[in-house]
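Re: beginner question about structure tokens

> Can someone show what the tokenized structure looks like for a real chain? I only ever see the sequence side.

Sure, here's an example I had lying around. Input first:
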Amino acid sequence: MPLAKGKAVQGAGFQQALTQALRSVSDTQNQATQMQREVQMDNPTVSIEETMVAMQKAQIGFQATLQVRNRLVQAYSDIMNMQV
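And the corresponding structure tokens:
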């Protein structure tokens, strides 16, 4: 049975890493959105340059997440289509 416990720990590690990555992307998007609002309200403490960088970081994070999702769906489809 130690092998089963090892697999469960590894599965939880992957799930935890994926959840943390998704939270990070979400936080980055929320920060960029908040900075956009501040720029629109003419807040002098938020520069448009910082806002644009935050928006690009959010976009890159989202694109990377989308690619990971696509790869996971493709891997699942490949496994489901395998003949046993």
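Each token stands for a local structural state, so reading them left to right follows the chain. Residues 19 and 72 are 14 Å apart (CA to CA).
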